[in-house]
Design goal:
The protein is of the alpha/beta class and 350 residues long. The protein is globular. The structure holds acetyl coenzyme *A (ACO). The site of acetyl coenzyme *A (ACO) has 24 residues, from helix 2, helix 7 and helix 8.
Amino acid sequence: MAIEIIGTGRAVPPRKVSNSDLSARLDTSDEWIRSHTGIGNRHIADDGTATSDLALEAAKNALAMAAGFTGDAQNTADRDLAAAEAAKSIDMIILGTATADFIGTPSTACIVQHKLGAEKAGAMDITAGCTGFIYGLETAAGLLSLGRGRKRALVIGAEVLTRVLDWNDRGSCVLFGDGAGAVVAELTGAPAEGPQRRGLVRTILAADGSGGESLLFRRGGTRYPFKKGETIENGVCVEMNGQEVYNFAVKAVTDTAAALMQAESLTADDLAIIIPHQANARIVQAARRRLKIAEEKFYLNIEEYANTSAASIPIALDEMNRSGKLNRGDIIMTIGFGGGLTYGGNIIIW
Ligand code: ACO
């Protein structure tokens, strides 16, 4: 039995904000942002759009694909019909996010479960920062593999990070964008071993909690509850030590790629594509040089979306899938890293 991805989807807000747009109101420039990060644009959710709204759209697109819908995935009635039918077959919804609709409860996954009408699905969020999708996919695979009758899971990465940024802090606000990506994972009869094996064949999940404070939402939890009058403007927002995260990330990407290749006896030539978390193109370049892997092996879309945290890998996967860049039998490596600190990766045979 194999865990195969049978549908992918994504959703990004229509409002696109370029580096030049930002430099009109902030002491920054297109040249600085591009040369330090590879970012050119980000998509920003309008007021009133929450993480679950983007997650729902991405999920519908993935579910409709799983149901065989091949039309235009933008809000069509036919897509919604196909998605609603497929939603009934989902046993579990797992949603990775650092920007849930609500702190604590209800989970964003439960909101999506209700809106999809996924009546038999359990639902929960995973807090693993930008590694949330990788953690979510492996958790889903574990649940499907237990032999307790669960066949299909919906795994989502979704964020509205732009709502928790200090827009006066040029060191962090230029880095992030909003979006969601989703996949439908199914337990199928395909072989999980041998030359014909398919699906999710290997995952590394790792953490280094000692670095937790280098990427932190300090306020609003039980450690530092909100105080009266606190707002994002006076410091209730994401805090990041860019240099520490950078150093951690380069090592995380390098170590995870090397460990996955070693565990599966693969060389870079065997890989069709590597989809890294899109946080900073320089992180990927530094890791790639250490690994001695050619630039073309890495899928990068950070220029368009900036860092969408848990959404970045499933958005990239869906872009590749929908543009026909993934072929049956392709070996895909994903690598994530982020808040926690967490990191890890998957090997997926398409
Ligand atoms: N525009 C113009 N100048 C800027 C900007 C900006 N947006 N941001 C910082 N600067 C300035 C600084 O003030 C500093 O000026 P100074 O020398 O006069 O003091 C100078 O640029 C250099 O700043 P550094 O912070 O040293 O720049 P660095 O080269 O380290 O790049 C960056 C900063 C891009 C944040 C880098 O450290 C980084 O990418 N870190 C990792 C961040 C990351 O990936 N976070 C998320 C990962 S986890 C997750 O995805 C949730």
